[in-house]
Amino acid sequence: MKKSSRPITPHRGKLAILLPGMGAVATTLIAGCMLARRGLAKPVGSLTQMATIRLGKRTDARTPKVKDFVPLAPLEDLVFGGWDLFPDDALEAARHAKVLDAAHIDAVAEELAQVRPMSAAFYPQYVKRLHGTHVKQATSKADMVEQLRADVRRFMADSGADRAVAVWCGSTEVFIEPTAVHATMDSFEKGLRESDPSIGNAQLYTWALLKERIPLANGAPHFGVDFPAAQELAREVGVPIAGKDFKTGQTLMKTVLAPMLKARSLGLAGWFSTNILGNRDGEVLDDPDSFKSKEVSKLGVLEHVLQPELYPELYGETYHKVRIEYYPPRGDAKEGWDNLDIFGWLGYPMQIKVDFLCRDSILAAPIVLDLALLLDLAHRSGMRGTQEWLSFYWKSPMTAPGLYPEHDLFIQQTKLKNTLRWIMGEEPITHLGREYYE
């Protein structure tokens, strides 16, 4: 199906990327964009900057880069802002995070130093291991939302940005079950006025940003934007939203390996995963309540990919365990170990072992860039509400009510690229290919 004739609002002016949480991930993104637009480094890992997209038949030889196919905001037009618990500017925060080499930081030091965080909306009971000094005071959570909205308006005026998008890059919050307060816009507004304890910090940003008509993605596993009241508000104000939990290391591997097992009808007896990391995220996840949010996000992948209800002989008794250990010496260089006990023909056992020595923020930064640019494109294309086509980037993709999420990385990639084709009026690609042989 081709796209309707509804036009895309052209990019103009500056695009602000607002980042709640200006720690390792956010400063790695900001520095990387500054380096890339000076030609000092390449934005490797970014689909919008490095990937191509096939148009038409294979024999048509039409394979432009994504950034040359869809009208994305260029890196040169990005400005950065955000909030943090600590007052460090992006230069100080990048040096403290120790993700990037000094040479990379020094090359854009003056520019990084100009990015200073606004004070955070923060209630410590939702992130027990952090004790910020750069936080707002408010009479209620409704007042906190209004302060965040004022921050947005002030930043837009001071930066001269034409429009904005936001991507949550802050720490994982404690696990919160949805309650009646999250059900409707009216119940949520009432909960804000009454400072309902079921409303966490991230939801304050969600409400403020959506009220300011700013597209939003949640990069953490907590209950941040995936609740009915937010989805209702996003549709009402015509804003796209997406989430949740960046798919960077171990879960990225799962969304590659698990589809392989199912595609070849190989059985899985058990999958044990453990991680060690020493950055701020690792420290936060050392708290059991915050780990619960991450565990729920990471455990859901296999069940949705393998569909044990459809393949009980292969996956009906799979044992799946996930562990995350805080190990300060490792810093941002996260290590993920996986052991898979699989079985094949006649039930004979085999094993797969993976040791992924990755860099958490290096993998997350290009995801933040892609989400910002693609949400801005979606907004300018008149799309609103949940953007399932961005599942490619998430551990726990948001979907329409009653619809299970698609976790297979390659199906997600096809969905993303077909959506870009649809936006631009090109035919989706099915990979059937019968025309070459008939």
Which labels suit this protein?
about 450 residues; alpha/beta; Rossmann fold; Dihydrodipicolinate Reductase, domain 2; 2 domains; 7-stranded parallel sheet; 4-stranded mixed sheet
Distance, first to last CA: 23 Å
Which sequence of strands runs across the widest sheet? Answer: 3-2-1-4-5-6-11
Relevant CATH superfamily of the largest domain: NAD(P)-binding Rossmann-like Domain
| Count of separate structural domains | 2
- The ordered string of helix (H) and strand (E) elements is EHHHEHHHEHEHHEHEHEHHHEEEHEH
The structure class reads alpha/beta
Query: At the first level of CATH, what is the class of the largest domain?
Result: Alpha Beta
The main sheet comes to: 7 strands, parallel
Low-pLDDT ranges: none
Write up what this structure looks like:
The model has no long low-confidence stretch (mean pLDDT 93). The protein folds into two domains: 15-246 and 361-423, Rossmann fold; 250-357, 2-Layer Sandwich (Dihydrodipicolinate Reductase, domain 2). The chain is of the alpha/beta class and 438 residues long. The protein is built from 16 helices and eleven strands. It has a seven-stranded parallel sheet, with helices on both faces. Helix 9 runs parallel beside helix 10. A hairpin with a 5-residue loop joins strand 9 (335-343) and strand 10 (349-357).
